[in-house]
């Protein structure tokens, strides 16, 4: 009996060590569900809000159209493949801020689905922000789009604005990027004219 206990004690410490190591390794492999330190906050609602009025000096700006797909067809249009979308806005200027005045989301019929900003937000030099549409929200349809307005109070390099769409299902995954297209120059501090 004492021989059995001696063998167990000789084996048990290494088994316990293996179990602890496995737990540590496996818990380290589990990715966080939200960015660490941000909780429910997204870059958009952490950005600095600014007030613009008719006295604001606007030197440059643009209105951009960003095509978005809430879903795509799969299996001869019999099934929908839902996609999650992240609209990414990146200030590429090395020294100066830009101001995002409007971010609007439209559906395939050209109807406004959501206005994302109550007030303009400022992006510092090289800063970025994003807006997210979940996989379960397919109200935009195949022809959904964002209209984004930005301005600056000095000459700046143009921002990079694009939509990143991803989805998984039917034993496959899909991801792609949809770049923005400039539809007009913007030197006004208010949102561009668009259907509401």
In a few lines, what is going on in this structure?
The chain contains 2 helices and 13 strands. It has 196 residues and is of the alpha+beta class. The longest helix is centred in the N-terminal third of the chain and has 28 residues.
Question: Please, could you describe this protein's structure?
Answer:
The chain has 196 residues and is α+β, with helices and mostly antiparallel strands. The chain has 2 domains: 1-31; 43-185, Sandwich (Hypothetical Protein Tm1070, Chain: A), CATH 2.60.290. Helices cover 16% and strands 40% of the residues. The chain has 2 helices and 13 strands. It has helices at 2-29, 43-46, and strands at 48-49, 60-67, 71-74, 79-82, 84-90, 98-106, 112-115, 121-123, 128-133, 145-152, 160-169, 172-179, 181-185. The strands form 3 sheets. Strands 1, 2, 6, 7, 8, 10 and 13 form a 7-stranded antiparallel beta sheet that branches. The chain is elongated, with a radius of gyration of 24 Å.
Which labels suit this protein?
196 residues; alpha+beta; Hypothetical Protein Tm1070, Chain: A; 7-stranded antiparallel beta sheet; elongated
Please outline the helices and strands.
Blueprint: H1 2-29, H2 43-46, E1 48-49, E2 60-67, E3 71-74, E4 79-82, E5 84-90, E6 98-106, E7 112-115, E8 121-123, E9 128-133, E10 145-152, E11 160-169, E12 172-179, E13 181-185
Antiparallel strand pairs: 1-8, 2-10, 2-13, 3-4, 5-9, 5-11, 6-7, 6-8, 6-10, 11-12
CATH homologous superfamily grouping of the largest domain: TM1070-like
Biggest pleated sheet: 7 strands, antiparallel
Shape: elongated
Overall structural domain count: 2
SS strand fraction: 35-45%
Mean pLDDT: 81
* CATH fold call of the largest domain: Hypothetical Protein Tm1070, Chain: A
- Gap between N and C termini: 83 Å
**What is the architecture of the largest domain at the second tier of CATH?**
Sandwich
Write down how many β-strands occur, each being a DSSP E stretch of 2 or more residues.
13
Q: Regions with pLDDT < 50 over 5+ consecutive residues? A: 16-41
Class by SSE composition: alpha+beta
The arrangement of helices and strands along the chain is: HHEEEEEEEEEEEEE
Helix fraction by DSSP (H/I, runs of at least 4): 10-25%
**Computed CA radius of gyration, to the nearest angstrom:** 24 Å
Using the coordinates above, name the CATH class of the largest domain.
Mainly Beta
Number of helices: 2
């Amino acid at each position: 009996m004492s021989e059995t206990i001696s063998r167990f004690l000789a084996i048990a410490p290494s088994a316990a060590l293996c179990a602890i190591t496995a737990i540590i390794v496996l818990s380290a492999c589990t990715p966080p569900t939200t960015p660490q330190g941000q909780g429910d906050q997204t870059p958009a609602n952490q950005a600095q809000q600014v007030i613009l009025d008719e006295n604001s000096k606007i030197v440059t700006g643009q209105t951009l159209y960003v095509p978005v797909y809430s879903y795509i067809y799969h299996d001869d249009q019999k099934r929908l493949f839902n996609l999650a979308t992240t609209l990414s806005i990146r200030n590429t200027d090395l020294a100066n801020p830009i101001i995002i005045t409007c971010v609007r989301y439209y559906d395939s019929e050209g109807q406004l689905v959501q206005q994302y900003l109550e007030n303009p937000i400022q992006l510092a030099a090289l800063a970025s922000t994003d807006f997210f549409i979940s996989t379960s929200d397919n109200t935009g349809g195949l022809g959904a789009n964002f209209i984004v307005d930005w301005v600056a109070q000095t000459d700046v390099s143009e921002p990079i604005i694009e939509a990143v769409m991803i989805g998984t299902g039917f034993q496959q995954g899909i991801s792609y990027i949809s770049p923005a297209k400039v539809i007009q120059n913007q030197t006004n501090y208010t949102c561009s004219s668009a259907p509401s």
